[in-house]
Amino acid sequence: MKFGDVPDPVPTKQPFWDRPGVLDDKARVEASITSAHHRASLLAATSQHSGDWLFALPIASCGLRLDDEAVRFAVRLRLGLDLYIPHHCHCGSEVDARGLHSFVCRRAPGRSARHHALNDLVARSFASAGFPFTKEPMELFRTDRKRPDGVTLVP
């Protein structure tokens, strides 16, 4: 079928008629992108399940309820907008306006809090399902980088 040909029988669903225009607009947007960051943002935003987080039920006991600031941050991050004023991190690295360094920095303030909150959520899930579990001990590493349980023998 060529562009402009009307199929038989004629589809009655609006997405069928919108598709050629949407694909044309998408191709124009993709052609206008110059930076790798913007291309990655577009590919992430147009992936199949990219918006599924919007369908999560806001259950506070499971940690699924986002406050207004978290939603604002998530939307700005999703759209590739600036999040921060450029500054120097605690680790000495330069943080740009997009703030992507905070996702990889080992000294980011919320990193361990998020880790422990996720561990608690998984532990509660196992407990409610009746599976035995053991959480990792707090303060796993000492100053000499050896584990207190004796598993790591070489720092």
- What's the shape? flat
Please tally the helical runs, counting DSSP H or I stretches of 4 or more residues. 4
Category by helix and strand content: mainly alpha
- Amino- and carboxy-terminal Cα gap: 66 Å
Q: What average pLDDT do the residues reach?
A: 79
Low-confidence segments: none
Please give the number of β-strands. Answer: 2
Helix content: 25-40%
Largest sheet: 2 strands, antiparallel
Instruction: Give the spatial strand order of the biggest sheet.
Output: 1-2
Tell me the strand percentage band. Answer: under 5%
Order of helices and strands: HHHEEH
Question: Over the alpha carbons, how many angstroms does the gyration radius reach?
Answer: 24 Å
Question: Can you describe what's shown?
Answer:
- This protein is mainly alpha-helical and 155 residues long.
- It has a domain at 66-128.
- The chain contains four helices and two strands.
- A two-stranded antiparallel ribbon has the order 1-2.
- A hairpin with a 5-residue loop joins β1 (87-88) and β2.
- It is flat and about 70 Å long.
- The mean pLDDT is 79.
